[in-house]
Amino acid sequence: MLGQLTGANVGLIYPSLLPPSLSKTKSKLSPISSMSMSQDPVHEWILSEGQATKITKIRPVGGGCINLASRYDTDAGSFFVKTNRSIGPSMFEAEALGLEAMYETGTIRVPKPHKVGPLPTGGSFIVMEFIEFGASRGNQSALGRKLGEMHKAGKSNKGYGFDVNNTIGSTPQINTWSSDWIQFYGECRLGYQLKLALDQYGDKTIYEKGQRLVKSMGPLFDNVVIEPCLLHGDLWSGNISSDKNGEPVILDPACYYGHSEAEFGMSWCAGFGGSFYNSYFEVIPKQPGFEERRDLYMLYHYLNHYNLFGSGYRSSSMSIIDDYLAILKA
């Protein structure tokens, strides 16, 4: 949300939950000692497990405001590296889990994570695949189809949630597993943001009305089959690109397993067009009431923008809440 290439996904992480391709890498989660390892663990990994014999060039990559991003060119190819000098490895470990989950679906292209670790002087880093972006954001139809394929392939038998908490922008995103989507969305998504607005701004009006909506929104899901599917979670224009072949690429996720329609909550700044939705619904058929639920999923992101950036987003949030309370007669 906050950066095209360098957005942070801060969250809780548990070593046992890392995918094998990440957890088996040497010193993946163990602290890096300045006495036993190089002062630059990024160089060390690239020149060992990265299978390079020399780093030929390092150049900064712009686009974000949370982390420092760089491209490392080597004789074994290029790597994309993000570092943060103030936040520990949990931030990038959560991002790596999301990237790995999407990568393993074998559908839409995402940068494959290679290595996560702490920096000896404080902070953390992540090394991932470098993807050469094309000149445009790519084909909308292909993006819709590939995203639908990811939703169809990425399933969970644990219900709704994710193995770790992460963030949406820099706001904590609570991913505690639940078997009930309406409860999960009401508590872990809308409820969390409403409480944050109350604590941060003392906004009792939006909190109380929002809680009325949470308690009464059940009918919006009548006759809807909801299966937990893997969501990118923060799909806006800054997190969408294309590779040099024109194939869609998505990055900087805030992943969790949820209702597929929740993926479109950032559509107000994603630029999805008719060809995108037509292709998506060929893979994941549109459910009854899709249009009526769209603003409900946008509300989460409007509330988050309110909490992150201030009162400029309050009126949009309040308008959505009031409209639903009128429709639901709550």
UniProtKB/TrEMBL annotation:
GO molecular function: ATP binding; kinase activity; protein-ribulosamine 3-kinase activity
Source superkingdom: Eukaryota
InterPro entries (UniProt xref): Fructo-/Ketosamine-3-kinase (IPR016477), Kinase-like_dom_sf (IPR011009)
EC number(s) given by UniProt: 2.7.1.172
Keywords: ATP-binding, Chloroplast, Kinase, Nucleotide-binding, Plastid, Transferase
One GO term describing the cellular component: chloroplast
Compartmental location: Plastid, Chloroplast
Stored SUPFAM superfamilies: Protein kinase-like (PK-like)
EC class of the enzyme, as a word: transferase
Record field: catalytic activity: N(6)-D-ribulosyl-L-lysyl-[protein] + ATP = N(6)-(3-O-phospho-D-ribulosyl)-L-lysyl-[protein] + ADP + H(+); N(6)-(D-erythrulosyl)-L-lysyl-[protein] + ATP = N(6)-(3-O-phospho-D-erythrulosyl)-L-lysyl-[protein] + ADP + H(+)
Keyword Lipoprotein: no
Cross-referenced PANTHER family: FRUCTOSAMINE 3 KINASE-RELATED PROTEIN (PTHR12149), PROTEIN-RIBULOSAMINE 3-KINASE (PTHR12149:SF8)
Family affiliation: Belongs to the fructosamine kinase family.
Function, as annotated: Initiates a process leading to the deglycation of proteins. Phosphorylates low-molecular-mass and protein-bound erythrulosamines and ribulosamines, but not fructosamines or psicosamines, on the third carbon of the sugar moiety. Protein-bound erythrulosamine 3-phosphates and ribulosamine 3-phosphates are unstable and decompose under physiological conditions.
Protein name: Protein-ribulosamine 3-kinase, chloroplastic
Lineage: Eukaryota, Viridiplantae, Streptophyta, Embryophyta, Tracheophyta
